[in-house]
Structures are given as structure tokens and as C-alpha cells.
Write a structure and sequence with these properties.
The complex is a heterodimer of chains A (about 325) and B (about 375).
Chain A (H helix, E strand, L loop, with lengths): L15 E10 L2 E11 L4 E5 L6 H8 L7 E6 L2 E2 L4 H7 E4 L11 H11 L4 H14 L15 H12 L6 E5 L7 H16 L3 E6 L2 H7 L2 E6 L2 E6 L1 H8 L3 E6 L3 H10 L4 E3 L3 E6 L5 H10 L6 E6 L2 H9 L6
Parallel strand pairs in A: 3-8, 3-9, 6-7, 7-8
Antiparallel strand pairs in A: 1-2, 1-4, 4-5, 9-10, 11-13, 11-14, 12-13
Chain B lengths: L1 H21 L2 H23 L5 E6 L13 E5 L3 H9 L5 E6 L2 E6 L5 H18 L2 H6 L5 E5 L10 H8 L1 H23 L2 H6 L5 H30 L8 H23 L5 H18 L12 H7 L3 H14 L8 H29 L3
Helix pairs in contact in B: 1-9, 2-6, 2-7, 7-9, 7-10, 7-11, 7-13, 9-10, 9-14, 10-13, 10-14, 13-14
Classes of the chains: A alpha/beta (about 325), B alpha/beta (about 375).
């Protein structure tokens, strides 16, 4: 089998490149016309609700599901032809903590090292290194079945980087974790970014995507509905901040719409006035006061990717 | 490159064995196999009825009227050796040899005291009933002599226990490989650990080889441990070629391991697999093995079915080697059958496991 790459040696390969890709599971069309790129050393988040096609997209990239049309390459290798080369270069943190519960943390890593052809000496050295990184070195010899959910998750991430991969796929790495454990995982991911590992993160937590991402893709029903940096997505679709009012009568809602044409009106006498920045909020409040428009409560906040998703689909991401 | 692949095989086998030992499955299954065999053996040994037992008769002068009945199925042979040989190959449970005004009843004591007592008693009654007064007078000095063919101490209080203990090995190997190896694969599917193996940068065959290596080492360990238990705990001595016995168990074990990979690939849950395998394979195989009950009790067409169960082939080898001084040539027929079974399952099983590995990347 040839191991020639799709790209030339002149330009460094993109970590991931997908072009007009479609994929189905059985008769169900899961991914539709997906095109995106992940540049080396960056973190791309794929944000979307359950069933958006995030995990399927990863399965295509690791050779689990064959595309029905279009192309996909990982580190320059075509996913349909050079799977073994791709496997050598990637690390995967799946949604499940797929650890051997009767083995210790070190033994799980040792097996992983063996699967990637590492020698005993390499494995011993790397084990301490990655366990330090995830703060589990003291629990090195404990069997995994005695670990908490957060510790298992950290160990799965440690395992995914054990063999020095170029790209790490993180499939909803913090789902089901408590806030402390989630923040600890985020710190680890930030650490990986600093080591210039390319990262593809799927999540349905907008805060996670906002905190960690260089770039964001928003998916819904198997399609990419928006992409860019967090700030570009916010400014393009919803602005930078909101003033949210409740208890606004229909008559006063119309008055507010005249003052702020971009206002969003909801049921239950609620309205949302987008602004381009937090700094614009005092001006909005002053205008409302000058016009003596009554309301029951007022809330000001920064816009989030959740707002982008809501704007684009009319529904919330979070389950 | 080959070094990397061998590391994969070694790594999988090593972690599989570690898990088996840590989870306590290895020892608990040895203990369960031993208790199961002994308890069931004793239970059935005391309540089983006997029918259609094949007995060879060498009576060139037609001095005695041996008759078929519900218990015995009489078959005349042309030489004394033919009768002895039929016992050795399992074609007869006893032989009556009538010559020089004596009757010698040669019995296969490895069938257990209950069976042999019944056979000896019925034959003795038939002999006495058919004797002419003159012949009875002439036999006064010789009489009817009952001779266990293999010289086992059938009067010992632990004779039945030793008979059962000698046959522990095929039962333990059978249960280990068919039940445990299959369940192991299903648990790996359920826990998504197969995904970790499937994402190793080697062809799936190396993963399969790692799994099979751990299975083979387990089989060897079970064989070794059961051999020690039968020899030093139950005092069973192997009279024939021990390598034939070990080979038969190894071949059967690997064969059932391949079968378990094949079967487990279609079951999503260990409980479903265990239920299916128990009903369709384990119970029939145990009762068709000849360990717990006489296979001669079954009607002819059932005996034909019994003959396709690999556990019975292995049990035949074990009995022959342990008690009947059998060597490779004596058990070659059963060894060949076991090898054919292995040849089929060792191809189909790994192919199924490979398919499961590839599918695990999709889930």
C-alpha cells in the first residue's frame, strides 16, 4: 500500500480537511455536505445538540463510517485508504470511559503503549509523564474501578495523548462531570494546546467551546450552520451583549421595536435587545428610561454561542 | 515492524490474563468445574438406570445361552482378543469368555461400579440358568470369574470419586473456553474497550492473535492446574501416554475458544450469550459426554447425535489414556475428530472477532 500523502511537501499538511462530505448510517443520512479544515496546532470545537452528527463526523475521520461522497483526510492521509497511517497519528477520547476496570491506571496506559508498539522503557517513562499531566501519578497503581468519574475521564485523556499523537479527538470529554472535574479537564486541554497538539473537540456545552476554542463549527441536523471564531460568530449573528426585559406589554413592545429594530420578542411579555458590546448597554438602559417604558425586570449579559445557535435554529443546544 | 506487532499481541495477552486473575474468574471457574463434576457425577451415579449395554461373548462351543434383554445387548465375537479390544475402544462394556470349562467376565471398570455390578449380575444369572447339570458339575472347580480389565480397585470407597476426578479436565477446559472466552468478548463490546483495541495501528489479525494467545495460555493453565488436582488431590494416576491426554484437551479447548468467538459475535449481552450457550451447548454436551451417565442408555439415533459432540471425543481420550494404558495410536480416531473441529472453529472464530473489531469503530 502506498503511503503517499494527498498534499505536497511544500505546504505543511492541514491536521484535518473535509470536502463536501456526506455520510449515512443505514438509510439515514447523517452528515450533509460537510466541509471544514483544522489547521495544525489549533483547537476546533464542533458545537451542536445531541444528534447533530458530531460523533458521526469523528467516526468518519477514524475510519469507522465510510463517507458516501466527498473526501476527508487526516494529517494528509485519506481516511478511506490510509487508515493505519491515520491511527498512528491520532489519539481519541471517546464519549465513554472505555478503560479496563480491573487494571491499574499504569497498566491501562501500558496496554495502550503496547498497542502503539512502544517499548517497555518508553512506556515506563511516558507513564509518569502523562500521569503527572493529569494529576494521577499518586494513583498510578490503583485499579481503575476505584476511580471517580472525573479521574477516569482524566485517565482516558492521558491515554489518548500517550503515544505523542499529532491530533487528538475529544468527543464530549466533559459530559456528565461535575463543574470542578470539568474545569480540571479544561485545564488539561489548555495544556495540550500549549504543546501545539491539534485538537478536535465535540461538545454541547457552549461555555466549553467558548473557553477552549480557536475556531468553532456549529452543527445542526448533520449540517454546518455556522463557522468561525467565537467572536466572529457572535458579532455576525447576535452581537456582543443583551439587555433582556420581562413584563413588557404588547403596546410597549412595539415602541421598543421602533427604538431598537433588531429586538427579539418572545412569549410571556419578554424582549431581548442585542447590542454590539457590553459598553453599549448603559445607552440602551438610558433610552428606555427616557421613554419611560415600563418593565418588570431587566437583565444584562454577554452574548454566548447558545444565542448564536438559538438565533440560527430557534432552539437551545443544551440538553 | 514485526517487533511492534508482537508487542501488540503480547500486550493484549498480558492485560487479558491480568484481568482474569484479578477478577477471580480463573480460580472460581476451576472450583466450580470441580464441584459441578463431582456433585452431578455422584447425584446421577446413584439414580441412573441402565439399558442396552453392549456385551461381547466369546463362546465357541455355544455352551451358554446368552440372551438380549432390556439391560444387555449381546454380540458374539470370534476371538477372545476381539472382546477385549471392543472394551478398549468403547464398543463394549464387558466381555464373557467361555473356554476350558470356565467363564471369565471381563469388565470395563471405568464405567463405574453401578453399571458393572448390574452387568456382572445379569450375566451371572444367565450363565447359571443355562448351564447343563453335567457342565455345572465340571465347572465346579473353575466357576465364574469376574475380572476388571484394567486392574482398578473397584472395591475402594473412593473408586467412584477417582473415576469422576479423572474426567475433570475436559469439563473444566470446555466450560472455561466456551463460556468465559465468549463472555469476555461480549463484555469488551459492552464496555467499549474493544474500541481501544480496534484503534491500534495494526491490522485486526494481530489483535485477534493477542486475544487467542491469552485464551491459549488460559487453557494451558487450566489443564496444568486440573492435572495437579486430579493427580495429587484425588490420587488419579495416568496409565497411558499423558501427552495424548494433554493434546486432546488443548485441541478441544482451542476449538471451543474459536466457537465461543463465533457465537459471542452475535450476542449483545453476556446474559443472553450465557443462556444460549448453556441450553444449546453446555447441558447437552455434558449429558452426551459419558461422564455422568451411560451413553448406552440412549436409543440408537440419539447415540449417533452424541458422537458429534467434541466433549465426548475428548472424554474418550481422557478415559482411555488415564485408565486403559492408551497411547497416541489408540486414541488417534478421537484426536483426528478433535483436530477437524479445531480446524473449522479456528478459522471461523477469529474471522467473526475481526468483524466485531471493525464494527466497534462504528459504535
Amino acid at each position: 500500500m502506498s503511503n503517499t500523502r494527498m498534499d505536497t511537501l511544500v505546504a505543511p499538511p492541514l491536521a484535518i480537511e473535509m470536502q463536501k462530505l456526506n455520510a449515512s448510517i443505514g438509510k439515514k443520512h447523517i452528515l450533509r455536505d460537510i466541509s471544514f479544515q483544522l489547521a495544525s496546532g489549533r483547537l476546533l470545537s464542533i458545537l451542536g445538540p445531541n444528534g447533530a452528527g458530531k460523533t458521526t463526523l469523528i467516526k468518519v475521520l477514524i475510519g469507522g463510517i465510510a463517507p458516501t461522497s466527498g473526501t476527508a483526510s487526516v494529517v494528509g492521509f485519506d481516511v478511506t485508504r490510509h487508515l493505519l497511517h491515520i491511527k498512528r497519528r491520532i489519539g481519541i477520547t471517546p464519549q465513554e470511559n472505555n478503560l479496563y476496570e480491573d487494571l491499574s491506571a499504569a497498566e491501562n496506559l501500558q496496554l495502550h503503549g503496547r498497542l502503539f508498539g512502544m517499548s517497555g522503557k518508553q512506556i515506563r517513562a511516558r507513564t509518569d509523564e502523562v500521569l503527572d499531566l493529569v494529576d494521577l501519578r499518586k494513583r498510578k497503581k490503583d485499579t481503575v474501578k476505584h476511580f471517580s468519574g472525573g479521574m477516569k475521564r482524566r485517565l482516558v485523556i492521558a491515554r489518548s495523548i500517550f503515544h505523542y499523537p499529532d491530533i487528538v479527538f475529544l468527543d464530549e470529554p466533559t459530559t456528565g462531570l461535575d463543574p470542578d472535574a470539568r474545569r480540571s479537564i479544561w485545564q488539561m486541554i489548555q495544556g495540550l494546546k500549549q504543546q501545539h497538539v491539534s485538537l478536535l473537540l465535540t461538545t454541547h456545552y457552549m461555555e466549553e467551546a467558548e473557553q477552549l476554542s480557536d475556531d468553532v463549527i456549529v452543527m445542526n441536523s448533520g449540517m454546518i450552520i455556522a463557522e468561525g471564531t467565537t467572536s466572529s460568530l457572535l458579532s455576525e449573528h447576535v452581537g456582543g451583549a443583551f439587555v433582556e426585559l420581562t413584563g413588557v406589554s404588547e403596546e410597549h413592545q412595539q415602541e421598543i421595536q421602533r427604538l431598537f429594530p433588531q429586538v427579539q420578542v418572545f412569549e410571556n411579555e419578554a424582549v431581548r435587545i442585542p447590542t454590539s458590546d457590553l459598553a453599549d448597554i448603559p445607552g440602551v438602559i438610558q433610552t428606555l428610561a427616557q421613554k419611560d417604558l415600563p418593565y418588570a425586570s431587566i437583565l444584562t449579559r454577554k452574548a454566548t454561542l447558545e444565542d448564536v445557535f438559538f438565533k440560527l435554529t430557534g432552539r437551545k443546544i443544551a440538553p | 515492524m514485526i517487533m511492534n506487532r508482537l508487542r501488540v499481541v503480547y500486550g493484549i495477552a498480558e492485560s487479558d490474563l491480568r484481568q482474569q486473575i484479578r477478577s477471580g474468574l480463573f480460580l472460581s471457574n476451576i472450583v466450580v468445574s470441580i464441584l459441578f463434576t463431582l456433585i452431578l457425577g455422584y447425584a446421577l451415579g446413584t439414580s441412573g438406570s441402565l439399558h442396552n449395554l453392549p456385551v461381547d461373548v466369546y463362546d465357541p462351543g455355544h455352551l451358554i445361552a446368552f440372551k438380549n434383554n432390556d439391560l444387555l445387548s449381546i454380540h458374539a465375537v470370534q476371538t477372545e482378543d476381539e472382546g477385549v479390544n471392543d472394551i478398549k475402544t468403547g464398543q463394549a462394556v464387558a466381555a464373557a469368555i467361555v473356554q476350558n470349562n470356565t467363564v471369565q467376565l471381563v469388565i470395563d471398570e471405568t464405567n463405574g461400579n453401578a453399571l458393572n455390578g448390574g452387568v456382572a449380575q445379569e450375566l451371572t444369572l444367565q450363565i447359571i440358568a443355562s448351564l447343563q447339570p453335567a457342565l455345572a458339575q465340571s465347572m465346579q472347580n473353575g466357576g465364574i470369574k469376574v475380572q476388571p480389565l484394567y486392574g482398578l480397585d473397584t472395591q475402594s470407597s473412593v473408586f467412584q470419586l477417582r473415576l469422576l476426578a479423572a474426567q475433570l479436565m475436559p469439563i473444566a477446559v470446555f466450560l472455561f473456553t466456551l463460556v468465559l472466552a465468549g463472555e469476555n468478548l461480549i463484555v469488551e463490546k459492552r464496555n467499549h474497550t474493544l474500541f481501544e483495541l480496534a484503534m491500534a495501528p495494526v491490522r485486526e489479525i494481530w489483535i485477534v492473535l493477542g486475544k487467542m494467545l491469552s485464551g491459549a495460555i488460559t487453557v494451558v493453565c487450566v489443564i496444568g492446574l486440573v492435572l495437579l488436582v486430579t493427580r495429587f488431590v484425588f490420587g488419579v494416576e495416568i496409565t497411558g501416554n499423558i501427552f495424548a491426554l494433554l493434546l486432546a484437551n488443548l485441541v478441544m479447548g482451542l476449538g471451543f475458544m474459536g466457537l465461543s468467538y463465533l457465537l459471542s459475535s452475535v450476542f449483545p449481552q453476556a446474559e443472553m450469550y450465557r443462556g444460549f450457550v448453556s441450553l444449546v451447548f453446555v447441558f447437552p454436551a455434558l449429558f452426551f459426554s459419558g461422564i455422568f451417565n451411560s451413553l448406552w442408555n440412549f436409543p440408537g439415533f440419539v447415540r449417533a447425535i452424541v458422537n458429534v459432540f467434541p466433549l465426548e471425543w475428548c472424554v474418550n481420550v481422557v478415559k482411555s489414556v488415564t485408565f486403559k494404558q492408551a497411547n497416541f495410536a489408540d486414541v488417534s480416531h478421537n484426536l483426528l475428530l478433535l483436530t477437524a473441529f479445531l480446524a473449522v472453529t479456528i478459522i471461523l472464530g477469529p474471522l467473526s472477532m475481526r468483524r466485531v473489531l471493525i464494527a466497534s469503530r462504528k459504535q
